[in-house]
Structures are given as C-alpha cells and as structure tokens.
Design a protein that fits this description.
The protein is mainly alpha-helical. It folds into two domains: about 1-105, no CATH class; about 135-263, no CATH class. Helix content is about 70%, strand content about 0%. It contains ten helices and no strands. The protein has helices at about 5-35, 65-70, 85-105, 105-130, 135-150, 160-185, 195-205, 210-230, 240-255, 255-260. The relative contact order is 0.10.
C-alpha cells in the first residue's frame, strides 16, 4: 500500500496538471484561430456566454468539471456550450497521465508533456481554420533538439546527438517539401500544405533520421482513418492533416518500440 500510494498520487497530480494545461491549450487555440494574442487580458466573449452574454464565474471555468456539472449547457440560458474546450482539456490530461506512467517525472517526461500541450493547441487550430500556427512550431523546434539530446545523451556524444537531430529535421523537411512541390507540379494541387512541411521538419528534430519511417507510417495510417471519418461526417474532400501528424509524432516518442519496429 505504501508503494502504491505515491504512484496513485503521481497519476492524480499528472491528471490535474494536464487539465490545467489543457485549459490553457484550449484558450490559446481559440485565440490563435482568431488572430488574438495568446497572453493578455481576457477577451470579453471569453468571459461570458456567447448566447446570452451572462458573465462566467470561476465555477464556470473549472477545467472539464464545469462542463460536465452543467451538462454542456449554460446555467443561465441553457444554450449548448462548445464541446471543444473540455475535449482538449481531457485529451491533454490523458496524455499527461500516459507520459507520467511511461517516463515519470524526468526531463524527457517534462519535455513530452510540453510537446503534448503544443500538439493539442496545434491540432485544435488546424481543425478550426486549417492552419498549423508557426508560433507553436517555433517553440517545439528547439525543444525537439533538447529532447533528442536528453534521450540520447551518452550514446553518441553531445555534439553527435545534436547533429543527428538537426539532420533528422533537415531530411524530414526536405522530403515533405519535395512531396508538396511534386504534387503541385504533377497534379496541380498540394500533396502537403506548407504547415505540414514545417511540422515534418520539427518532427525530424524530435525523432532524428532513424525515427522518420515509423513517424510517416503511423501518421499515414492515422491520416487515412481520420480522412474517412472526416468525409463521413461531411467535412469534404480536403481535411486537416495536422492532427494525424501530431498523433504520429506523439505515439512514436511515447512508444519507442514503434521506431524499432519500422526503423
């Protein structure tokens, strides 16, 4: 029992921290999609119900809990509330718990948790407006180099680990750009958007060159599944690829066995 308690408390701590970070991620994604500053005074329409404009109190803003307690409706006018916020909060909480169980409170664990927040924000924005924000990629890029160095430190040497990370980013970005340019020349439309190309480059920094085959396979499979679901729900022929890339990157980092299988 004494050995079990710290583990349970750790999971609870990871889940609660994930909910709080997920709340930030959902708010940040909402603002990014509307070209508003991420950090700054709360916007009027974010502190009031969009239907009746009733002000939201602290109890209305509790991550996930407030949405469930109100059954997804405004407690003033009973209008349905956007489910995207609690969904992002729940996803980030689950990812935090998964990282804690696999990595614990270690430097790689903290970096993967930061990545989870960035990927959640990135996916939410891409789903809403079809754009992968450069701001998030710029933050995730150096974190990827640090992560690759942290995980591989002592195996190939510090400079070699950093160089491998940079090679992975350059190769992945170059390959994705070739697909982007090639499809546009041969088919008249983009095979990958430029945001996807930049994401590939960032993924290469986190995974290095040897993790790219697994990343492309996992992202491709999840992309096919997502495309089928997207069209089934009436989303049209074109669909945002960012969420599938985000899932592929996180799975390959969280479960290194995938890289060994496809590498």
């Amino acid at each position: 029992m004494n050995g079990l308690l710290p583990g349970v408390l750790g999971v609870v701590f990871a889940g609660v921290t994930g909910l709080l970070c997920g709340s930030f991620a959902s708010l940040a994604a909402h603002r990014m999609a509307r070209d508003q500053p991420v950090i700054g005074p709360v916007i009027d329409d974010e502190e009031a119900c969009p239907s009746c404009q009733a002000p939201l109190g602290l109890g209305d803003l509790l991550p996930l809990a407030a949405w469930f307690l109100s059954r997804g409706r405004c407690r003033h006018c009973a209008a349905p509330l956007d489910g995207a916020y609690p969904f992002v909060e729940a996803v980030v909480a689950v990812l935090f718990i998964a990282v804690y169980l696999e990595r614990g409170m270690t430097p790689p664990g903290f970096l993967l948790a930061a990545l989870a927040v960035g990927l959640a924000m990135l996916s939410a924005v891409d789903l809403e407006i079809g754009i992968i924000p450069d701001t998030i990629l710029v933050i995730l890029a150096p974190l990827g180099v640090i992560y690759f160095f942290t995980v591989g430190a002592g195996t190939a040497g510090a400079l070699d680990d950093i160089l491998l990370s940079i090679i992975g980013g350059a190769f992945a970005g170059g390959l994705a750009f070739a697909v982007h340019y090639g499809f546009k020349r041969l088919r008249g439309h983009e095979g990958l958007g430029l945001g996807d190309v930049k994401f590939f480059a960032v993924a290469g920094l986190w995974l290095g060159p040897f993790g790219l085959p697994a990343f492309m396979i996992v992202s491709g499979v999840s992309g096919i599944a997502f495309a089928l679901l997207w069209r089934r729900l009436g989303g049209g022929r074109e669909f945002p690829f960012g969420p599938s890339l985000a899932l592929g990157l996180f799975l390959c980092l969280q479960f290194p066995a995938l890289v060994r299988i496809f590498g």
